[in-house]
Amino acid sequence: MIQCVTARRIPHVAMVSAFALAVMLLMPSFAHSERECFESRKGYSKVVQKKIGDERVNVKCSNTTGAVLWWGDPYNETVDMGPMPVEADYSHEEAVIKERTPQLKYYMPCTVCHNGVTVPYPKDKNPRQITMHLDIVGEDSMDLKHGRLAIWCLDCHNPTNRDTLISHRGEEISFNQPMRLCGKCHGQIYADWRDGIHGKRIGNWTKGGKKRWWICTECHNPHSVQLERFQPIQPERAPALPRGMTSAEHDDIRYEGGPGGHH
Ligand code: HEC
Ligand code: HEC
Ligand code: HEC
Ligand code: HEC
């Protein structure tokens, strides 16, 4: 029995070290190539892994899922959240977000086509069959997968300035503030989000500390929430132990003369 286990282990160990060697040989080329990962919503929360400073990278990404595992700089490529009408934590600290417009496929901007001439302004808010953007909203615009047929495109999109979304009072809302749009119908969730119960923030947790806030469309696809509320990231195994380490209970390990300076 013991023999059997040992026999199976030798080739395994050999394979692992061959793999480690291959990875080490490839390392320098990895350092130069730009790698694209995603933060929360695949395809719509892209981030390019790059060096920030000498030692750090902006994000570390999973080799299995491509999802971001860790942020080297929580504020990398963020901008101010912009004016928010309701008071919350963001009113008393520095609040930043990632812009949505660079993530959109059709944003060039939208008014390149939706200028009233190239594409006429819609006559009313009544749902109709459209032939454009089916890659975004699904094959049948009369059966939009959000709101169980109670809402349509123009309850969210501004009919006369397509570069913006629209409030109940007809005020323009930036694509970078979807929380103000979603909040007009999902008041309770909007309140939870402002309180930090719904959604996600990272950054400095001292009182008044700067934070990055995740905004609604970084997690939810507004055109398909009825089919899939949220796309969970595939769970994966805990990372392998570094070579030479046999147990994860390394907290008590003390090195003679401190950590030897190897990384
Ligand atoms: C390449 C041109 C083009 C671009 C760019 C474009 N659209 Fe459109 N869009 C159209 C056309 C054409 C229609 C009408 C299709 C039809 O009637 O069958 C349309 C229809 C729509 C509709 C349905 C309501 C309506 O006005 O008919 C929405 C909502 C919409 N577009 C949003 C956007 C948004 C948001 C952007 C930018 C992120 C955008 N579009 C960019 C061409 C474009
Ligand atoms: C519940 C609100 C809501 C409804 C209803 C809605 N949209 Fe949108 N739409 C949005 C938001 C918010 C965004 C920006 C998404 C993001 O940040 O990822 C968007 C983005 C878009 C884009 C740009 C996507 C891209 O990747 O370029 C198009 C095109 C579009 N919508 C068309 C439509 C059409 C056509 C309809 C109706 C058939 C519709 N939308 C219905 C809220 C809505
Ligand atoms: C114009 C009103 C309106 C707006 C704006 C709106 N929603 Fe909704 N949403 C609805 C309705 C109606 C439902 C369906 C509620 C039900 O039937 O339980 C819904 C359902 C949902 C659900 C649950 C999916 C399901 O059907 O189980 C999610 C998630 C959601 N919305 C997210 C968003 C996000 C994110 C935004 C902003 C981008 C947004 N909504 C904007 C009206 C809206
Ligand atoms: C960090 C990711 C994240 C952000 C940001 C986020 N949500 Fe969610 N939301 C979730 C998850 C996860 C669920 C649970 C999904 C499920 O039930 O499968 C959820 C559920 C929901 C639901 C359904 C709730 C119910 O009980 O039926 C709505 C509506 C919703 N979110 C709206 C919003 C709105 C509006 C915002 C912005 C103000 C927002 N979300 C921001 C992750 C997020």
Question: Could you describe the 3D structure shown?
Answer:
The chain has helices at 2-32, 134-137, 178-182, 187-195, and strands at 35-38, 46-49, 51-52, 56-57, 59-61, 68-71, 79-80, 95-97, 165-166, 172-173, 201-203, 211-213. Mean pLDDT is 86; it is low at 1-11, 20-25 and 27-31. The protein has three domains: 1-28; 32-73, no CATH class; 78-219, no CATH class. It is built from four helices and twelve strands; from the N terminus they run αββββββββαββααββ. The protein has a four-stranded mixed β-sheet, with no helix packed on it. The protein is an alpha+beta fold and 263 residues long. It binds heme C (HEC) (4 copies).
Keywords:
263 residues, alpha+beta, four-stranded mixed sheet, disordered N terminus, binds heme C
Question: How is this structure best summarized?
Answer:
The chain is an alpha+beta fold. The protein contains four helices and twelve strands. The two termini are 38 Å apart.
Rg over CA atoms, rounded to whole Å, is 24 Å
- SSE order, one letter for each helix or strand: HEEEEEEEEHEEHHEE
Instruction: Round the mean pLDDT to the nearest integer and report it.
Output: 86
Reading side by side through the largest sheet, how are the strands ordered? Answer: 7-8-12-11
Number of helices: 4
- The backbone outline, from C-alpha atoms, is globular
Question: Can you tell me the residue ranges where pLDDT is under 50 for at least 5 consecutive residues?
Answer: 1-11, 20-25, 27-31
Proportion in β-strands: 5-15%
Name the bound molecules. Answer: heme C
Number of spatially distinct domains: 3
Helical amount among residues, as a percent range? 10-25%
Measured between the Cα atoms of the first and last residue, the distance is 38 Å
Total count of strands: 12
| SSE-based structural type | alpha+beta
How many strands, which pairing sense, and closed or not: the largest β-sheet? 4 strands, mixed
